[in-house]
Amino acid sequence: MKSFYSTEEEGEKYPILISETNYIVFKSDNMEKISNSSGDSLSLEDALVEENWGWVYSNFSRTKLVWKRTLYSLSYIFEFFCFVISLFMNKSSKEPVKAPFSVDPYFKIVTWCFVILMGFPFLRVIYSNSVSSINILSWSINLMYLPVYFLLSFLFIHRAVTGVDGNTIIEDVILGCAMILTLIIYYRVKYKDDGRYKVGIIELLGVQVHFSALLACLLVEICENVFKTCSIYHDADKMDSKLFGWHYSSWTILVIILTSWTGSLILYLYKDVFYAGVMSFTYFGIYSIQQRYFCDRNEPECNDSVGVTSVVMASIMLFFILITIITYPKLVLYSARRNS
Q1: Quick one: 9 and 79 in the same domain?
Q2: Cβ–Cβ contacts within 10 Å for residue 255, how many?
Q3: Higher confidence at residue 54 or residue 286?
Q4: Number of domains in the chain
Q5: Burial degree of 153 (CB within 10 A; 0-12, 13-18, 19+)
Q6: Distance, CA of 82 to CA of 240 (rounded, Å)
Q7: How far is 147 from 134, CA to CA, in rounded Å?
Q8: Which domain holds residue 32?
Q9: In sequence order, what are the beta bridge partners of 25?
Q10: Is residue 211 situated within a structural domain?
Q11: Are 286 and 103 in contact (CB under 8 A)?
């Protein structure tokens, strides 16, 4: 049986890869062998539940590691290429979306650039031979992130080709699927993270920050795109129009408050200042588009209540972020641990 080892900062060796027909659970401090098997009777989930201070890798070989890394690298390059094309070809990306819930286009560009750039640390993470990195490829994320790459790539190309005349329903479906997959990944790297592995600065950026920012960015995109769809099929570009008896301005304020509540809840549960930070940045983007584009030009999308609500929610979120950083500095810097 072959085992490959990774040397950590303290000079200790940890087994991270075992042959496809054998797997072993080790204790992390003194390398004491706890249990082993030569068959397929012991699953990864069972081992983690039974021995929550150890780890196990089942049916995972160096070959699988190589092709998974290759797939992720090629997918990221493709997504990056599509994003750059969309950025330069889609002239409408710098124009405001004529919808009640709308974010300043320059704020959106900055957010997407940040999310895409955080893909570099993520690649660094999966190319690392640390225990936590191998765990990401073998269980936490596995291949689940690959469809998100291609969904976002298609979204970027679709917007670059069609511009403002694109099919918003197709975009709603794409964003919805990407959001669901990202939410599952986020759940696994946040809620399922019980603090077993060390987390360095690269993994903090590539996993914790990356998926927090991506989840927040997709949530904002979905909200804006749904309102954009309504503006096409239900005349929702006028704030005084009604949907189910409510003015669209009221719906917009409700969405801002609900997303702010969600950000505060995630901040409370996981000390995730990165998700909350992106949401706060977005609220300032909503205020910016109200003032710079709509109200100053007397557009029908102008509504002072929406602008004021977005600034208030952004300020509250920033206050909560500051309190979290002061109260839980270690959790913020080294990823949220469920049992900390």
Answers
A1: no
A2: 20
A3: 286
A4: 2
A5: buried
A6: 38
A7: 20
A8: 3-55
A9: 35
A10: yes
A11: yes
Pair 287, 182 in one domain: yes
Last residue of a domain, one of 55, 78, 94: 55
Give the DSSP H/E element, type plus range, for residue 4.
strand 3-7
Contacts of 312 (CB under 8 A, 6+ apart): none
The verdict on 76 and 13 lying in the same domain is no
**Is 214 part of any domain?**
yes
Note whether 235 and 287 are same-domain residues: yes
Judge if 237 and 124 occupy the same domain: yes
Predicted TM-score (pTM) of this structure:
0.78
* Residue with more model confidence, 245 or 41: 245
Q: Are strands 54-55 and 23-27 parallel, antiparallel or unpaired?
A: antiparallel
What are the CA-CA distances from residue 230 to residues 58, 183, 212, 322 (Å)?
A: 48, 25, 28, 36
In-domain check, residue 339: no
Q: Model confidence over 95-110: pLDDT tens digits?
A: 666 666 788 888 999 9
| Torsion, Cα of 38, 193, 115, 237 (10° steps) | 120
Q: Is 246 helix (H, G, I), strand (E, B) or coil?
A: strand
Q: Evaluate whether residue 275 is within a structural domain.
A: yes
Tens-digit pLDDT profile for residues 113-162: 999 999 999 999 998 877 677 778 877 888 899 999 999 999 999 988 88
pLDDT > 90? residue 282: yes
